[in-house]
Design a protein that fits this description.
The protein is mostly beta strands and 62 residues long. The chain contains no helices and four strands.
Length: 62
């Protein structure tokens, strides 16, 4: 049984959980943050914005 569920309007999932019926059951997920920079950034105090990648995996039964 999954502990994390994803609900996307217009996409039916296969969860039979009482509180999340019809949602997508997430099997695993990963969250990665990075702050790209270059050698040219120097020490001027300018900070690049953080890039956040979120990926999730679900078992496809259909």
């Amino acid at each position: 049984m999954a502990d994390i569920f994803l609900k996307i309007v217009g996409i039916a999932g296969e969860s039979q959980d009482a509180l999340h019926r019809g949602e997508i059951e997430i099997d695993s997920w990963r969250w990665k943050m990075s702050q790209p920079s270059s050698m040219m950034s120097g020490s001027g105090g300018v900070v690049a914005r953080v890039v956040i990648d979120l990926s999730a995996k679900a078992l496809l039964l259909r």
